[in-house]
Design a protein that fits this description.
The protein is of the alpha+beta class. 30% of the residues lie in helices and 32% in strands. It has three helices and nine strands, in the order E-E-E-E-E-H-E-E-H-E-E-H. The strands form two sheets. The protein has a six-stranded antiparallel sheet, covered by helices on one side. A three-stranded antiparallel sheet has the order 7-8-9, with helices on one face. The N terminus is likely disordered.
């Protein structure tokens, strides 16, 4: 996986068209917020621009993975993009990847029993409730899958009685 951070003078290839663009907010280390923008290019390049920096993911499997790559780099600067995909309870699944290439995520409603709530745009900002670091999100996702596994085990036990 390649992570590139570009300075302001770096640009995508001139023939690379933007397929989607999102205006977002970025939380800085001091808890202030700054305007930002995520551009998604035809080539698969993702660029998050904010104030004095550009964060770029050019090696990823899907849009949610690109966001993850960018977030890891932003965390080094104490920054966090305020988008639906950074919620603690945002969950990417194989179905979400195959149907929307990671541009959509599930929001988990509860852990016990595990339930999905709604499907939202990964880079949208209409459901940002609890944005967290990648590590915190991974921890919550692991709890969800464990609850899902336990729930299925309990269902199988109940069906066997």
């Amino acid at each position: 996986m390649t992570i590139r951070v570009h300075s302001q003078e770096s640009h995508p290839m001139s023939m690379d068209a933007i397929i989607k663009s999102y205006r977002i907010k970025v939380r800085n280390q001091d808890s202030s917020e700054a305007p930002g923008r995520i551009d998604c290019y035809e080539s698969g390049l993702f660029v998050l621009s904010v104030e004095d920096r550009r964060y770029v993911s050019d090696s990823h499997e899907h849009a949610f993975d690109a966001l993850r790559v960018i977030r890891l780099e932003m965390e080094k600067d104490g920054r966090l993009p305020l988008v639906n995909g950074t919620n603690r309870h945002a969950l990417i699944t194989g179905m979400a990847i195959s149907m929307a290439q990671g541009f959509r995520v599930y929001l988990i409603h509860q852990l016990n029993p595990p339930q999905y709530s709604i499907v939202v745009d990964t880079f949208g900002s209409d459901h940002v409730t609890d944005p967290v670091s990648v590590a915190e999100q991974d921890e919550y996702r692991q709890l969800f899958w464990e609850a899902e596994k336990n729930s299925k085990s309990n269902q199988e036990l109940n069906e066997g009685e």
